[in-house]
Amino acid sequence: NAGVTQTPKFQVLKTGQSMTLQCAQDMNHEYMSWYRQDPGMGLRLIHYSVGAGITDQGEVPNGYNVSRSTTEDFPLRLLSAAPSQTSVYFCASSSGGAGANVLTFGAGSRLTVL
Amino acid sequence: KQEVTQIPAALSVPEGENLVLNCSFTDSAIYNLQWFRQDPGKGLTSLLLIQSSQREQTSGRLNASLDKSSGRSTLYIAASQPGDSATYLCAGDERNFGNEKLTFGTGTRLTIIP
Hints:
The structure holds two protein chains of two kinds. By secondary structure, chain A is mainly β. Chain A has strands spanning 4-7, 10-13, 19-25, 31-38, 42-51, 54-57, 64-66, 76-78, 87-94, 104-105, 109-113. In chain A, strands 2, 4, 5, 6, 9, 10 and 11 form a seven-stranded mixed sheet that branches.
């Protein structure tokens, strides 16, 4: 089925380790984004991209890195994991800007940092 | 900084009742507004998108409206069913941010009692 695919679904890291959360979409969407969801805080934007080769910071970018080499893929890299990064991460995409277009979400990646 | 409040945080109603979920923004300059549904352990699914030139949208038993003068939105669910049980989130974007960034509410957890 067409949509947004995130891997892995679950991951446990130790403090200081690095890892990459993968996100791929097959809808030819220009806009892609990463959010984290924490209890009582809603979804917060980490980074977003309006097209291949273009990325920008969201509300909580520190400790995360992104790149957009293709339209389909938008990986999120944790450079040196910290317990504060324990969260559920969602990748989302849309055909245009996130506000004026339907946003399609992946199923999420649950990350625990010990 | 834009903040979004969703009231109530949780709601339980018997099957068949009509209900209203509320969403309000501290800054009423909302350009587009989107309502989402999230099932436990899953990603978000877009339900309704109210674009800048619109005041309401309808899909089946769902109707969403946006009062831009007050920065408030309501999601009306008619003839509720057990399958409507989920968390409902609203998100809006502000014109001065372009439309690449959405601000999310923390959601209303809805339980429909059979």
